[in-house]
Amino acid sequence: MLVTSTAYLASDTSHRIDHPNSSPRHIRVVGIGIKGADSAQTLNAAQMRHVRSVSLPASAGPGASMEATLQCARDQGVDLTSELRDADLIFLVAHAGDDVSMAPAIKQLARQQNVSITGVLVQDRSAAQDAASLEVLRASSDMLIIASDNDYVEDMLQELGA
């Protein structure tokens, strides 16, 4: 089974970045929910190359339409479609207990542009598992990372050359 999965992943090119590895990657860090938005705001994106952060503390609510979600983002001063337009990678950051209901709409926008999403759920090791947020982020991400503190996001971006 592992060989089959590996062969499939190697052949699936739908989310590959279409330019050489030597070209810079344009990364968007989208913080959703109150703590996730705070994480995106405090990220030192200004000192990172080709990284922009977007903060969305409020949401249109679970099951909201795409238009309602985009309007909610506009009400927070974010044109989500244009913010994500030229991204090569999207990091979707939330903390345990955050409202992550914007994640499916962000996934839909990313799919329209063939951009992969890495979800990051920051969760204190001693805290109880946030199953609801975990389920939504898992379904809205190509890869999901559970981190124990906020520094992980910045460390990951630095390792990517940002």
From TrEMBL:
Name of the featured protein: Uncharacterized protein
Species for this entry: Noviherbaspirillum humi
